[in-house]
Write a structure and sequence with these properties.
Blueprint: E1 2-7, H1 17-25, E2 28-35, H2 37-40, H3 47-65, E3 72-75, H4 78-89, E4 93-97, H5 102-114, E5 117-120, H6 142-151, H7 185-189, H8 194-205, H9 215-218, H10 231-235, H11 241-252, H12 258-283, H13 305-312, H14 319-331, H15 336-349, H16 354-364, H17 370-381, H18 396-403, H19 408-413, H20 435-438, H21 454-468
Parallel strand pairs: 1-2, 1-4, 2-3, 4-5
Helix pairs in contact: 4-5, 6-12, 11-12, 12-17, 14-15, 15-17, 16-17
The chain binds a DNA duplex through α6, α15 and α21.
DNA sequence: TTTTGAGTTGTTCGA
DNA sequence: GTCGAACAACTCAAA
């Protein structure tokens, strides 16, 4: 018996339920990845994430070759390509990991009409649809969702599926080659692959390194390396979410000190957020098209192209926003706190439709996932499930002072601020005209003046939301 | 059905 | 400088 293992966003051999289902049913496995032209042509498909995916596929191929197998790559419409592959191999079934993303669901529906496709849960620890209220309705608020999620029997180390020692793939089949991507800063920041993901997880969990132990107190500091930086790996399944949750639960339990326990709890909470947004998207696929709350679909945005472009390129005149955007466009990753500050600034200070920002993040983030990205933007804009209160408008100067107290983050990404004294580093326009040349940063010449006045913008957005929520 | 308490991540103002 | 209240009103979840 032969089975096709259809790889999509589960680029790993460890703890892979779709692969396990395939090997359980068949002794011959055909691993395939289908490059879908509809996805490659999507405006949300950016070159950085694509390069990360290609690098991940090469690594997966190498990992498979070490086990007697290899990855077959096909380019074309998935149902058609899988159909051809099934003819070529005589496979009796196709196994793949279920994905709640609406495009994936319709694609898989089309494949199922023609082929014996078996979808296996594994993208999340608890299937999106498994965490429900007493009457069977889905949750729309995070805290009760997380309580119900935690109340379900959680995975333990014994539940993790080991990496297969050998995979029998005797076929010599045509395989498309992946485009070569030149080495970049990206490759240095986030090397793709399962081994890298495992090594990062190990370092994060290491007691001596204090990654997870310091997480609760340091994760908001944009100038420090206080987060796991595992999001790109979770996005493509180079790391199993189940393995991450098992690690978090292990770190949260036992006789550990209070700080370490709190750190593990905080990290577990972030993993639950990921599952929350996948669940939300599963139940409300229409969220990708607009605000969850109908009352907030008629806000009048300024939608000023020039301020949007200033935001995209990191030229708003607010250092923490600009540093965040440059970190994103240069590395494909942005610190979580910086995401909130940058997103809040676009929506609340510039009054630009949150969907513009959502698309920009989709294009640039290695870890961009439709569920989490949309959920985060709706949360920031205050138009989604469990939305932020209307009055939560982040002040970029205060956020900078609190989460980048010495200005190391903004100086790293904005070299023009290198000589600005720390008291002014988050508001350089407050330097006197005589100090600016001494600091090597004349506002308006070396670094932009603020694109809007925050106090004025705050009043404007409150008015716009009040009007937008009127019937 | 009605009621009640709560809702990731804050800011501003005035005493 | 510090502190507490105010900031729309609404929806969700559970009793």
């Amino acid at each position: 018996m032969t089975a096709i293992w259809w790889v999509r966003r589960d680029l790993r051999l460890a703890d892979n339920h779709a692969l396990q289902a395939a090997t359980g049913a068949s002794d011959c496995i055909v691993p395939v990845f289908v490059l879908d032209p509809a996805l490659l042509a999507s405006p949300d498909c950016g070159p950085k994430r694509l390069a990360f995916l290609f690098a991940g596929l090469r690594t997966l191929d190498a990992d498979l070759r070490a086990r007697g197998s290899h990855l077959i790559v096909r380019h074309g419409e998935p149902a058609a390509e899988l159909s051809v592959l099934r003819e070529e191999t005589g496979a009796s079934a196709i196994y793949a990991e279920a994905d709640p993303w609406p495009y994936a669901r319709s694609r898989d529906g089309r494949v199922s009409e023609q082929l014996p496709l078996h979808l296996v849960d594994g993208l999340t620890v608890h299937a999106p649809g498994a965490v429900l209220r007493a009457g069977g309705a889905p949750y729309a608020v995070f805290t009760p969702f997380s309580r119900a999620w935690r109340a379900l029997p959680g995975p333990t180390a014994r539940d993790l599926v080991p990496t297969p020692a050998y995979l029998n793939t005797p076929f010599e089949l045509p395989s498309s080659s992946l485009p070569e991507v030149p080495p970049s800063q990206l490759e240095a920041s986030f090397p793709a692959g399962e081994a890298e993901a495992q090594s990062r997880l190990g370092a994060f969990l290491d007691v001596v390194m204090a990654g997870i132990a310091g997480y609760a107190s340091l994760r908001d500091r944009v100038d420090l390396d206080g987060t796991s930086r595992l999001s790109p790996y979770l996005r493509f399944g180079m790391l199993s979410a189940r393995q991450a949750v098992v690690a978090a639960l292990q770190s949260a339990g036992g006789n550990r000190d209070e700080v370490a326990r709190r750190g593990a709890e905080a990290w577990l909470n972030e993993l639950i957020w990921r599952e929350f947004y996948m669940s939300i998207l599963h139940h409300h696929p229409d969220m990708l098209n607009g605000a969850f709350r109908p009352a907030l679909r008629s806000i009048t945005w300024s939608n000023d192209r020039s301020v949007f472009e200033a935001w995209c390129s990191g030229r708003t005149g607010y250092p923490i926003v600009d540093a965040a955007m440059r970190q994103l466009t240069q590395t494909g990753w942005m610190h979580n706190r910086a995401r909130m500050v940058a997103a809040s600034f676009l929506v609340k200070d510039l009054l630009v439709d949150w969907r513009w920002g959502e698309h920009f993040f989709m294009q640039h983030l290695l870890d961009a996932d439709p569920a989490a990205n949309n959920g985060g933007w709706q949360w920031t804009a205050g138009v989604g499930t469990d939305a932020a209160p209307y009055f939560r408008i982040l002040n970029p100067v205060l956020q900078g002072g609190r989460f980048d107290p010495f200005g190391a983050f903004v100086r790293r990404w904005l070299p023009e601020l290198a000589g600005v004294p720390t008291p002014f580093v988050h508001e350089p326009w407050k330097m006197t005209l005589s100090l600016q040349p001494q600091a090597g940063c004349v506002v308006g010449r070396d670094y932009p003046a603020p694109i809007v006045d925050h106090a004025w913008a705050r009043a404007r957005v409150l008015t716009a939301y009040r009007r937008g929520s009127e019937p």
